[in-house]
Write a structure and sequence with these properties.
Blueprint lengths: L6 H11 L16 E7 L19 H9 L1 E7 L5 H10 L3 H4 L7 H5 L11 H6 L6 E7 L17 E5 L10 E2 L2 E2 L2 E2 L2 E2 L7 H19 L3 E6 L23 H6 L9 H26 L5 E7 L28 H4 E7 L8 E3 L3 E2 L2 H10 L15 H6 L8 E5 L2 E6 L2 E5 L7 E4 L15 H16 L2
Helix pairs in contact: 7-9
Length: about 450
């Protein structure tokens, strides 16, 4: 699908597709684009109106972002769990390369080393761009918080967020530990809603850096709408989805609403409102036209059958978080760059989160380190021109689950002792009809590609 957006677009496309000719930053060498990556936590593929018109959730701001940019319908995270997916995004590498293959658990795990210190993150690459970027992280870190593992020790100038995989939305504790930080120092804002704390910190960062004229990278990994965890609650505090009173009211409920699904809807609505404030601030700062925005969920919504907790929707996908079924790894994702990415478009070409590191390097004209094998590929020709994905296949392994997608075909098994199941995603997005017996040669082809991935680690 070709898009005619004038000479500026043609120049970008030539640069993106024929990288040796010239760096993308030469389009406007004095003002390389800002980069804003927003992630939601365990948001379901079918929770948003722009993905599922039948959803009960109101998400006008995220839907507006989709109207102003492109909605990706085949975007993947390499892992269906929080810790690993974040490490893959920030390193541009699958877990079997960077080594963080499991969810960090407990206080000891979340405050441990986590991701290997030798791994290079997006902000470190942007710091070495010809025009160095200001870098800020606001939200859920979840890849290690020991000395040398914290965000401000891994390339971020500013950090307001938490170390753990989840926390109480108002008291900001993870298990028995207070878990909100500014830089490496504890930040006490008890009683304030955590989604708004993160959004406000990101807005302040964007406004300050835009005013200074320095290009910036803002990584905004929200904790919402992560499910409630009983171990984070104080004595007598109910283990329910937490949203501000105004969110319940604007969703037509009262703050004492008992239904978990409706409470979840209010949490997503509050997240959407925070993202709307952020986008409005971006407009008011004058930076919107020169900012590449990418929104995604870190993995699919959980569908483990836990009453009052697993209420998000992955419609029309099968299963959810911590599995390699489509509901665990295919996530809602939106890209916007005014005047460059076609507004209101939909892209079905498969991409995944490691591609974002490559995009950041190209947008900033930063050199990637030599001797490192990255699993991402440049997504800009796909996002801008509608080109075909340059990925040959996508590899997924988490615990006993494993899968591989190649073209429209996918093999999957829930443990190594099982035979591969085979699905054609173009005809069977719900993964309901196993074609392995009918198409044994197709299984062998994908199994060989899976083995090639394994041999590369």
């Amino acid at each position: 699908m070709a898009v005619n957006l004038g000479p500026a677009l043609l120049l970008i496309l030539n640069i993106a597709l024929l990288a040796p000719l010239a760096p993308l930053a030469q389009l406007n060498a004095d003002h390389p684009p800002n980069i804003l990556i927003i992630t939601a936590d365990n948001l379901g593929y079918g929770d948003l109106g722009c993905y599922n018109p039948k959803t009960s959730i109101k998400s006008p701001n995220i839907d507006r972002l989709a109207e102003q940019g492109t909605r990706l319908t085949s975007f993947y995270t390499p892992s269906p769990t929080c810790t690993v997916s974040r490490a893959c995004l920030l390193t541009g590498r699958v877990a079997q390369r960077h080594g963080l293959t499991e969810q960090l658990a407990g206080v000891a795990g979340n405050y441990g080393v986590g991701l290997n210190h030798d791994e290079i993150l997006i902000p470190q690459i942007l710091k070495n761009a010809p025009i160095p970027y200001a870098t800020g992280c606001f939200g859920k870190w979840n890849i290690g918080f020991a000395r040398k593992s914290r965000p401000t020790e891994r390339g971020f100038d500013k950090f307001v967020g938490h170390a753990s995989g989840n926390l109480d939305y108002y008291h900001h504790n993870y298990r028995e530990r207070h878990d909100l930080f500014s830089g490496t120092q504890e930040l006490h804002r008890d009683g304030e809603y955590i989604t708004d704390i993160f959004a406000d910190a990101a807005i302040d960062f964007i406004q300050q850096k835009t005013q200074s004229g320095q290009p910036w990278f803002c990584y905004l990994p929200f904790n919402a709408p992560h499910f409630p965890v009983a171990e984070n609650k104080r004595l007598g505090q109910p283990n329910i989805y937490q949203a501000p009173d105004w969110a319940f009211v604007e969703c037509g409920m009262t703050p004492d609403e008992a239904d978990p699904k409706q409470r979840y809807d209010a949490v997503v609505f509050a997240l959407d409102k925070a993202i709307g404030r952020l986008l409005d601030a971006l407009e008011k700062s004058g930076a919107a036209e020169n900012t590449f925005v990418f929104f995604m969920s870190d993995n699919g919504g959980f569908r483990l059958g836990r009453e009052g907790i697993d209420v998000g929707l992955n419609t029309p996908l099968r299963s959810g978080g911590v599995t390699c079924w489509e509901g665990g790894i295919r996530v809602a994702a939106i890209a916007r760059w005014p005047g460059i990415i076609k507004a209101g478009s939909v892209i079905s070409q498969p991409l995944w989160s490691p591609d974002l590191l490559k995009a950041c390097a190209i947008l900033s004209d930063a050199r990637l380190p030599s001797g490192v094998l990255f699993d991402g590929k440049d997504p800009l020709p796909v996002l801008i021109e509608g080109a075909e994905s340059s990925h040959q296949s996508f590899y997924f392994v988490f615990r006993n689950h494993a899968a591989l997608r190649m073209d429209d075909w996918k093999i999957i098994r829930e443990n190594p002792a099982q035979q591969w199941q085979l699905f054609n995603l173009a005809n069977d997005l719900a993964e309901s009809e196993d074609l392995a017996t009918e198409c044994p040669d197709q299984v062998k082809k994908l199994e060989a590609a899976f083995s090639s991935w394994e041999d590369s680690f």
